[in-house]
Hints:
Layout: H1 2-30, H2 34-39, H3 45-55, H4 61-73, H5 87-122, H6 124-139, H7 142-156, H8 168-171, H9 173-179, H10 181-188, H11 192-209, H12 211-218, H13 223-260, H14 266-275, H15 279-307, H16 315-321
Helix pairs in contact: 1-4, 1-15, 5-6, 5-10, 5-11, 5-13, 5-15, 6-11, 7-10, 7-13, 11-13, 12-13, 13-14, 13-15, 14-15
Keywords: Cell membrane, Membrane, Transmembrane, Transmembrane helix, Transport
Membrane topology: Multi-pass membrane protein
InterPro entries: BPD_transp_1_N, MetI-like, MetI-like_sf
Amino acid sequence: MLRVIGARLLQMLVVVLCVTALGFGLVNILQGNVVYAILGDFYTPEAAAELTAQLRLDDPLYVRYLDWLGAAVRGDFGTSVITHQSVSEAIRLALPPTVELLVGAQIVGITLALLTTVLSLRFRWADRFVTVLGLIGNSVPAFVVALMLIVVFATGLRMVSSIGWVDPATEGWGANIKAMIIPSVALGVSVFPEYMRVLRSEIYEQLESEEYVTLARMKGLSKPRILVLHVARNSVGGLITLIALTTGFLLSGVVIVEEVFSIPGIGRLVLGAINNRDATLLQGAIVLIAVGVVVANLVGELIQMRLDPRVRPGARRRVRAG
């Protein structure tokens, strides 16, 4: 297991380096005339030359990347050229709302997947209804769901606030959780159909093909008990892997949801950096997103290995040898 973790960490390092190099190049090539964007009405040839020298824009791209990478390894992602705020500080302030939104969306997606799967297994008529519900969930964009939820529950029924995040340190956790309900549902609805599809297929496969299920039935165990005691553990491996893999997808949806609900998170930070041509801030956010995705994938893979011995390294060789 330690060898697997070491190999995966090495792969993570290579992926992050590739992403940062590609991102650094694209950001610096596509950002346009950043000097003009910063100076605006105060643009003069002298001021432009001074700012170009200060930002070292005349240096080769690979030199600037290596300098940035060396500082990033020490935790210094530079300073925003627009707000003059430390990039590390800006990310630190924007990270908690995004993490809370991602966790809330995963809870909503998993809960809906479990409920609809149990419903389809318990009642035959519900299977077609759940399938249609999944198709609707896949078809409707997150921002449309967000606007519908705002109209119904915030504007119409006034059950929750349409403001997506309040600081728990000043307003309390109760107000914070209440404000995050609609954004979490809006983002969670976009992933629950895939969770439901994988969970249903895994459970059906276990029920129809595994010998231990047949043995449990011969012993007289009820279907709910077989599902809880035997099938559930062997069925969640694929779901856990999918949850890890959807982290990147959710991060893309975070940008839209955070903008709709004015949540001061990473997605809104990235959007502001793009609009302001703030290459330094955007590059720091790219690193954070890349690290978050690869770490989530690693954690999902390790959990699946723990739950399902069949996917562990050497399992196939042992089966063939046996």
